[in-house]
Amino acid sequence: MKKGRIVALPMLFLFLWLGVLSRLAQPQELEKASDEKILASLHSISSHKLLDYVRELVSEKYGGRLTGTEGYNASARWVAELLQKWGLRPAGDQGSYLQAFPNPYTLVFPGCEAYLHLPVNGAVVKKHYRFDEEFIPGATSGSGEVTAGVVYVGYGITAPELGYDDYAGLDVKGKIVLMEREVPVSPDDNPELFKKWRPYSFHQYKLENAVGHGAAGMLYNYGPICNPNNSYRQGFIYSHVGDVVVSDIFAGTGRTHKETLEKIRKKLKPQSFITGKTFTLKNETEHYPEGIGYNVIGYLEGSDPRLKEEVIILGGHLDHLGRCYELMPGANDNASAVAVLLGVAEALAQCPVKPPRSVVFLFFGAEEQAVAGSEFYLNNPAFPLEKTTALLNLDGVGCGDKINVLAGNNFPELWAFIEKANAQYVHRVVDPSFFANIARPRLDAARFLWKNVPSLSFSVSGAPSFYHNTKDTIETITPEILEDLAQLLFVAVLDMSDEPVLDFRK
């Protein structure tokens, strides 16, 4: 009996010790198994699939995705169907993925023209300008035709409190005004001075001021690009023009455009004048004041009972410019971002390791129309803004090999998650920058920042790209950067979601 007990005790201790070792090893084994599952989901993100998403969105059937049109609505339904297929929950109106908001829009049709009248040997020769290269119709222009003398009105500003009026001493009634974009001071050079000029930088203000002074049309020195972010005034005809048109109008006036601009900026004094040139603008459009736009919202509910009340939003605008009058595909701006967001959504949805916090995928409408979709969301949030830990916004992420992170330096603790994920898995050049955000809103992230939601905005550079014209096509897209950015965000979001406390507002 004694001998048996002596043998049994060491065996008992051995079994107990092995049990302890087993329990000590279990967390490491579980962690390893968890990492393997995460890596498998990470590598499921494919550049080929993401490029296919871009190809789908730039196809003719979506018509350039102008918010309010049936083409945009079809693209929104396509995104919603994918979110539903992957098991993301809807967070739109009445149990759907769509959040509706008012959104007037204008259609532009073929037949638009822009030409200068040139007197030659007692006759008049019409110099027609080339669509896309030298002019693009105003995307909220009225419909009709105007032929009139051209008056240069600088920045088109009337600001008594600043002692500045581009229209002073001029009669522009029935005329076509040639106007600059922005204002003569820079937010980077002198932020405090810029804030005084800021209200006059909006496209809507400039157009309304021209109408208020009786102008019949406008040549907007902007690009030329397509831009549906403006007011609509019935019968007021305008187009965007570039250097060729501007140079032709200044030719023979005894002034140059460059010197005239420099005088305005240096002295902050108007340099407006009657050019002596005659111009014709003809646009064929149809306006829809009762248009409706949609945001698309889906989410993965967090796995932690407490942390799931907090949300991380991944966002990007789904819309583009429609037809103006030819198709504006919008491959980089912003089908590229939608593709990346879809890649992250599918990978997270299928990953066996679920994020403790809820992750929201928000596809904005009407970013190109005064950044209206994100403004509506912020006034009608699907999730409380105070529980929104961050927005990771994507805009123009398809052309190049370098990733830029606007506002990364504003939020160093948020940026640290991006930097860590890049160092561990992606190894791209990823550059953060500071964002003062005092100009007019050009990004959905800008509106979130004004609502005190920490926000980073991702873009890509390093390869030729085209902005707001017919050349923003799938041929310009770099598929590898789509995959790398999607993987970067996948890792960063899982890491952020697992953090016990997230407070980037401090």
List the helices and strands and how they pair.
Elements: H1 2-42, H2 47-57, H3 70-85, E1 89-90, E2 98-102, E3 105-120, E4 123-128, E5 135-137, E6 144-152, E7 158-159, E8 164-165, E9 176-180, H4 191-197, H5 203-212, E10 217-221, E11 237-241, H6 243-250, H7 257-267, E12 273-288, E13 292-300, E14 311-317, H8 331-350, E15 358-364, H9 372-379, E16 388-394, E17 400-406, H10 412-426, E18 429-433, H11 444-450, E19 455-462, H12 479-497
Parallel strand pairs: 6-9, 9-10, 10-11, 14-15, 14-16, 16-19, 17-18
Antiparallel strand pairs: 1-13, 2-13, 3-4, 3-12, 5-11, 6-12, 7-8, 13-15, 17-19
Straight-line N-to-C gap? 70 Å
The CATH architecture category of the largest domain equals 3-Layer(aba) Sandwich
Computed CA radius of gyration, to the nearest angstrom: 28 Å
> Class of the largest domain, according to the CATH hierarchy?
Alpha Beta
Oligomer: single chain
CATH topology of the largest domain: Aminopeptidase
Task: Give the number of helices.
Answer: 12
> The biggest beta sheet, please?
9 strands, mixed
What does this structure look like?
- Helices cover 34% and strands 25% of the residues.
- The protein has 506 residues and is α/β, with parallel strands linked by helices.
- It folds into 2 domains: 42-103 and 291-497, Aminopeptidase, CATH 3.40.630.10; 106-285, 3-Layer(bba) Sandwich (Glucose Oxidase, domain 1), CATH 3.50.30.30.
- The strands form 3 sheets. Strands 1, 2, 13, 14, 15, 16, 17, 18 and 19 form a 9-stranded mixed sheet that branches. The protein has an 8-stranded mixed sheet with strand order 4-3-12-6-9-10-11-5, sandwiched between helices. A two-stranded antiparallel sheet has the order 7-8.
- A hairpin with a 2-residue loop joins strand 3 (105-120) and strand 4.
- Helix 2 (47-57) packs across helix 12.
- The protein is elongated, with a radius of gyration of 28 Å.
